[in-house]
Every structure is written in structure tokens, then in C-alpha cells.
Write a structure and sequence with these properties.
This protein is of the alpha/beta class and 446 residues long. Helices cover 23% and strands 17% of the residues. Strands 12, 13, 14, 15, 16, 17 and 18 form a seven-stranded mixed sheet that branches. The protein has a six-stranded parallel sheet with strand order 6-5-7-8-9-10, with helices on one face.
Length: 446
């Protein structure tokens, strides 16, 4: 991941161990569902697109960001794949496509169909289980990673770190009784007719802004509800800071500045248990499958390969030719977790910065070899400072990325000889996460 204006660099808070790491455990993910049907009463084929309680399925080991520099990029242009603002976008966020209008249906009939569909969806909604009950609470989320195109990219191995944070927020709010609407396009977001219905509105460093990096006009009057999902943390934007304070910038990890740590959670069967001495092969895994991460890293990888086998999910063309280095290509989230469970260590290349994969490795009982920087990168002194804080750093070994790699070889030997139980940091358990969002959004919960 890479994003300008990131904040951090202070010492991380010490974490406590815990967490069952069973095969079914995973970071919170989900998927979109597209349902084609026939509208009742009109005899004309209709296509409905709606959200379910499940959310986007993503590839957890690709945690890089494909976002661009906020100083040089502009807000994304409206997508043409969905209806324009104000057409068929119901206030709850359920979208009815324009296919019926193309077939000559009148607008009134389209609206009536929308109401019937929404009422039917409410009647057939799944039991929320242990969700808290009370007055109706609604939240709206629109971020770059919620765009339909981004979701599709993530399923093919694209960026997923920001998506993890957003999906966990959605699930956490639903667990607290919120009806969460996720906008999938500019048109869908701008087509909301009543922002007053939402207690909370979540945007990111891109989606809040209109032309000229000014707050989108229809958000005026609702700034007290706005929070930004700001993965790395930042100093905000001069045109927004007087409206949305830095404390309402929510970060993936506790970066120690004026932003607020939101994080994510790791779903587990029993948070009191650990994986005890998982069976390991004498091998390591290279973190990162984008070829750009491997530029100028061949000497480093050959140094490790002189002492241990290495497995990579990057294309073979990105790797140095060495008998101890193997490319297995893109794999599923389950295969990624299995790979970490059977490997002694995960080695970082310096990027992606602060991705969840380092925590995945620790959760699997694998040591994370954490590269440090001579010059801080996005205010971070290493690829994953939070990982180095878990249980006093026993799950990480740091080496100088620009060094002679003698310390890296020492880390490899340490990792190959290690016997670590898998652990989930207390901050990333479901209980810890729910308590955190209760604290952050206290006013909106009552």
C-alpha cells in the first residue's frame, strides 16, 4: 500500500495474545450478490442489484493500495455503469437498474417496483442473531475500495488492505444494529435523496471531495456525521480539516498521532485458544506479488535462498533464478493461510507498507522478518511497526533493508529454529474491535 501524508512513527502499544487460528478463521470478508429476476405485475424482465448481509470477498494476502497521490490525483469521475443521480436510487441504498426503462416502463412503475422490492427484502432479511436492537440506526459508506470495479479487481488479486478495514466496519456496525448502505459508484452515492436518515457517513481521503477539492455540496449540513477511513493516517486536507477534525480520520493501526485507531478484526471460532506448535517446513514466504516490489531485491532474496527455501506468489519473471526460490502464482485466501501455517517465516520487501499479511503470518505461528528503513517511509521506520509490537516483538525479527544482509541471515536462522504458537493481537479480536467502535461512535449508538 502506498499513500501520501501518512502519519505515525511513534511507539506502538503492546498487544496481548489470544485467538483461535482454526482453518475457518479469516479476516472479515464477504461478497456482492447480483440477482436477476422478473418483476411482479409487469411481465417484463427486470434486473435487481442489492446488498446482502454478506460483503465483498477479497484476497487477504494482497494488501497493497492502488490509490494515487492525494496531492496530484482528483476525485474519481462518475461511473456510467449505474443510473445517474436521482433516477432509480432508493433512499435505503438499494439500486434498481435502468434496464426496465430501456424497455419502455414508466417511471412510476419503476418506483412502485422499487418499493415492492425493498419491502420484500425487509420481510425476508436474515435473523440478525445477537445484533443489538433498538431504534433504527443507519450508516452510509462510500470509499474508493467500495467501487464495483475495485471489488472485482480484489477478487483477481488486487488491492485489499483498505477493503479489509471497510468490510470489518460494515460488519461491526451491523452487529450493533445498524442498517449499513454501501454505495458502489459515484452515481449511487450522489443519488441518495436524504442524507439526514444516516447517523454516520464514512468516506475516505478521495470520496469526500468535489471539483477543486471542496466538500461535495450535498454533504453540507451533515459534516458532524462524517468520518474518513484513512488507512495510514494523515494530516488531512486544508479544505476539510475545519469541518472534519483529524480525530475523525480512522486508521488501520494505532499510528500515535491525532487520528483515531479503528483497525479491523480477525474472525475466530474461539478467541481464547491458539494454534499450538503448528507443523512447519524449513521454508519462508515472500510477501508481495506485484512485480514492482521485487525491483532491486534480487540480491536480498538470493541471500535468503542460500539458507532457506522461499515461496512467492509473484510471477516467476519477477524473481531471481535460484533453485531455492519458487513461484506458485496467485492463490486463494485459504491457500494463503495454509501456506503461512506450513512456513517458518514471512519476509517483507519494504512494500506493501502496513498490510495485514504480517499479522496473518503471526496468527499462523510464523515469524515476520521486518525490514527497517534508514529514511522513514510515510513516517514509518519499518514495514510493519505494529507487528513488532505484538507480545513484545517475539514474533518479528528486524533487519536493515539497505544493509549488507548479515542481520537478515541472522533473522532467517532465528526463524528456522523458532517454535511459535499462532496468536491474534487483542486489538484485532472481535471483542476488542466491537469495544473500540462502541467507544468511537458512542453518540450515534444511542
Amino acid at each position: 500500500m502506498a499513500k501520501p501524508g501518512a502519519a505515525g512513527g511513534k511507539r506502538w502499544r503492546k498487544s496481548k495474545g489470544g485467538g483461535n487460528l482454526g482453518g475457518r478463521g479469516s479476516r472479515c470478508f464477504g461478497f456482492l450478490v447480483f440477482l436477476a429476476g422478473v418483476s411482479v405485475g409487469f411481465g417484463v424482465p427486470r434486473v435487481f442489484m442489492f446488498r446482502t448481509s454478506k460483503t465483498d470477498t477479497i484476497d487477504p494476502h494482497s494488501a497493497r493500495s492502488s490509490f494515487t497521490n492525494t496531492k496530484t490525483s482528483s476525485p474519481p469521475p462518475p461511473r456510467s455503469l449505474l443510473p445517474p443521480p436521482g433516477k432509480n436510487f432508493a433512499t435505503s441504498g438499494k439500486l434498481i437498474s435502468k434496464e426496465g426503462e430501456k424497455n419502455g416502463l414508466e417511471r412510476a412503475k419503476t418506483a412502485e417496483t422499487s418499493r415492492k422490492f425493498e419491502n420484500s427484502e425487509k420481510r425476508n432479511a436474515e435473523n440478525p442473531g445477537n445484533f443489538e436492537t433498538g431504534k433504527e440506526k443507519k450508516a452510509l459508506i462510500f470509499t474508493m475500495d467500495s467501487l464495483s470495479s475495485r471489488v472485482d479487481e480484489s477478487k483477481k488479486g488486487g488491492a485489499s488492505g483498505e477493503m479489509t478495514i471497510r468490510i470489518c466496519l460494515q460488519k461491526g456496525l451491523q452487529r450493533l444494529g445498524f442498517d449499513v448502505t454501501v454505495a458502489r459508484s459515484d452515481a449511487e452515492f450522489e443519488g441518495v435523496k436524504d442524507f439526514g436518515q444516516f447517523r454516520l457517513i464514512f468516506l475516505d481521503p478521495w470520496t469526500w471531495a468535489g471539483k477543486g477539492w471542496i466538500l461535495k455540496p450535498f454533504l453540507n449540513g451533515h459534516v458532524d456525521k462524517i468520518y474518513l477511513l484513512d488507512f495510514f493516517g494523515s494530516d488531512g486536507h486544508k479544505n476539510l480539516n475545519h469541518l472534519v477534525p483529524l480525530s475523525r480520520h480512522l486508521t488501520a493501526y494505532p499510528v500515535g498521532n491525532s487520528n483515531t485507531f479503528l483497525g479491523y478484526f480477525i474472525e475466530q471460532d474461539d478467541p481464547k485458544n491458539k494454534i499450538k506448535n503448528p507443523s512447519k517446513k524449513p521454508q519462508g514466504v515472500i510477501w508481495g506479488k506485484d512485480p514492482k516490489y521485487y525491483k532491486n531485491k534480487h540480491q536480498m532474496l538470493e541471500t535468503i535462498a542460500s539458507a532457506s527455501k522461499l515461496v512467492s506468489t509473484a510471477p516467476a519473471s519477477a524473481l531471481p533464478r535460484h533453485p531455492n526460490i519458487t513461484s506458485i502464482g496467485h492463490i486463494s485466501p485459504q491457500q494463503w493461510n495454509s501456506l503461512l501455517l506450513e512456513s517458518r517465516f514471512l519476509v517483507g520487501l519494504g512494500d506493501p507498507l502496513l498490510g495485514p499479511s504480517a499479522v496473518d503470518a503471526i496468527r499462523a505461528g510464523s515469524m515476520f522478518l521486518n525490514p527497517t528503513f534508514r529514511t522513514p517511509k510515510l513516517r514509518q521506520n519499518s514495514q510493519h511497526p505494529f507487528a513488532s509490537s505484538i507480545e513484545g516483538g517475539k514474533y518479528t525479527c528486524e533487519f536493515e533493508l539497505e544493509g549488507d544482509y548479515k542481520d537478515l541471515l541472522d533473522c532467517v536462522q532465528t526463524a528456522l529454529a523458532s517454535k511459535l504458537d499462532g496468536v491474534v493481537p487483542e486489538e484485532l479480536t472481535m471483542e476488542g474491535y466491537i469495544n473500540r467502535i462502541k467507544s468511537i461512535f458512542t453518540k450515534a449508538l444511542h
